[in-house]
């Protein structure tokens, strides 16, 4: 059985490892097309050139002059964590590919916010049943707990002097280490692919797509893990959870660490006249507290609740 038959299974977390300019993204795009041929939808932060911009990209030296295939409808560019989770939770055949998402960690370094986010992205993708592929430069750049506990396949790109590229596929083998009194993992050879073809899809290597952690995935995973829902129910709840988190973060940014918002700030947030906010208070649509001077102050929880009810985020 080829690795491709099991590589995209729901809940798999796989890594593609190689130094810069060795062909990691090229292989990831090739993988994406293999997945699409099998009926999967690919969600990724790998940026593609639009067909009308390809001639200029070739002229600028950003692309080789070749015949490029059109971008498949089932390849979706998604640079936001919230949208990624939402899309991955829809349907049953989704692949998530994150290219150079800013991972920087090793077992000897403190975990940064980005590393924590990647850890819980892995947990969340496994929980909702999609397949996650992470492109990174070294083993040490993968969150240790993620690599040890969750990674199923590890792919090493091997670039030869004649510029051809081969790919070594390793599969995880978890076992109990008596000396450590803990479970450990080895990655053992599983398959080997020679002469990986160059991509005929116009992906942007000079200016790779970004990825924004617009929600706190640690909090997201805690909520779904503690909810008591099974995986089917979680899929139904994810839109509500994500929308609430996005709304709260936007309101947090608007508050700029202030505990309360004044009428004019709430009006700006909802894009209405301040008199509309005063009217909503009179009708009981939103609650406020009054200062001794008679000013209205609105708490974060009240503004968040109204934002969600009105669906402004």
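^ structure tokens above, recovered residues below v
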């Amino acid at each position: 059985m080829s690795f491709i038959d099991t590589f995209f299974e729901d809940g798999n977390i796989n890594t593609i490892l190689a130094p810069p300019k060795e062909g990691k993204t090229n292989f990831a795009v090739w993988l994406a097309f293999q997945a699409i041929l099998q009926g999967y939808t690919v969600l990724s932060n790998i940026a593609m050139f639009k067909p009308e911009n390809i001639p200029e990209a070739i002229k600028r030296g950003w692309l080789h002059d070749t015949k490029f295939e059109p971008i498949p409808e089932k390849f979706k560019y998604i640079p936001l964590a919230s949208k990624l989770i939402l899309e991955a939770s829809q349907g049953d055949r989704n692949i998530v590919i994150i290219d150079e998402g800013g991972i920087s960690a090793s077992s000897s370094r403190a975990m940064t916010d980005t590393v924590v986010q990647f850890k819980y992205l892995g947990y969340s993708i496994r929980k909702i049943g999609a397949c996650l592929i992470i492109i990174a430069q070294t083993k040490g750049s993968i969150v240790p707990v993620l690599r040890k506990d969750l990674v199923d396949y590890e792919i090493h790109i091997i670039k030869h002097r004649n510029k051809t590229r081969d790919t070594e596929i390793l599969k995880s083998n978890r076992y109990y280490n008596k000396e450590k009194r803990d479970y450990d993992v080895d990655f053992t050879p599983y398959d080997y692919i020679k002469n990986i073809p160059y991509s005929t899809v116009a992906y942007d290597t000079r200016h790779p797509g970004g990825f924004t952690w617009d929600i706190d995935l640690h909090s997201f995973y805690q909520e779904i893990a503690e909810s008591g829902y099974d995986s089917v129910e979680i899929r139904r709840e994810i839109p509500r959870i994500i929308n609430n988190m996005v709304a709260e973060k936007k309101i947090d940014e608007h508050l700029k660490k202030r505990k309360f918002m004044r009428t004019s700030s709430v009006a700006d947030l909802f894009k209405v006249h301040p008199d509309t906010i005063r009217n909503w208070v009179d009708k009981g649509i939103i609650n406020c507290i009054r200062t001794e001077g008679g000013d209205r102050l609105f708490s974060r929880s009240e503004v968040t609740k109204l934002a969600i009810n009105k669906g402004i985020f």
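The two ends are 46 Å apart (CA to CA).
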